[in-house]
Amino acid sequence: MQTLGLVGPDAAALAERLVPRLDGRVATVEPLPDRGEDASRPAAPGLAPGSAAAGAFGVGPDGSWVGAGEDRSLADTLDTLAPEYDYALLVGFPEADVPAVVVGGDEGDDSPTGEVLGRVPDAGGADLGDLTERLDATEPHVTLESLVRRVKASPRAERAGAIATFTGRVRAKDDDGDPRTTALAFETYEGVADDRMETIRTELTDRAGVEEVLLHHRTGVVPDGEDIVFVVVLAGHRGEAFRAVEDGINRLKDEVPIFKKETTVEDEFWVHDRDG
């Protein structure tokens, strides 16, 4: 799922213009007002004040639905949207670490945390074609669930009786006495890592009994506890699926040029320098 932040006075208007130009299912996310200390106000439309329910949903016979709750962060929301949508437009979240466009206002106002793809004076002044190309070139928001959904949608899925997955995550420490790792940062040679992963994916998919393989490795800074890498295999039987998952992650680590910098509470270093 491609994710874009829109910040500034004219952000909502640009979102309205951009949605029909995007090729796929689009979700928009907007901030709700802070209840502050007034617990009598509902956390979200549709959730009654004082309700003991953590969430409330309505579903219509035509597939329409609405939902409300008070137990979800922006990050949780993006993870929920990723399997279902191709794009997410975050309107009015300058703190979100996602690619962003500033719409209107003075430079410095609503300065976003993520990479700034552009600044436009107003919604009407945005080049939607150029913006769409820039958005499609950014790293997508990928979750294990979104990859599993993709392999289930494969035209070869009817031949498969197994899905096996591997998830690698940032480990805070190896032993109790180790300094805590707060984050890992990953860098790649542009294009080379993608080509190597595609070669691995193709060779694994060509195996007898393997129907589909997906690999994804995040780049940039990944905090401790978050997911780094996924391998998902769709296969005829569990044996082929498990073998392909294990070979997939082993080959990815051995053959794909991905460089890792570790930040601990005491130090910061490139892992290949320490290993060497």
From TrEMBL:
Entry EC number(s): 2.8.1.12
GO terms, molecular function: molybdopterin synthase activity
GO biological process, one term: molybdopterin cofactor biosynthetic process
Tree of life domain: Archaea
Segments of skewed composition (Low complexity): 42-55
EC category name: transferase
Matches recorded under InterPro entries: MoaE_sf, Mopterin_biosynth_MoaE
CDD domains the UniProt entry points to: MoaE
Region of interest called Disordered, as start-end residue ranges on this chain: 29-55
Keyword line: Transferase
The protein's name in its UniProt record: Molybdopterin synthase
Phylogenetic placement of the source organism: Archaea, Methanobacteriati, Methanobacteriota, Stenosarchaea group, Halobacteria
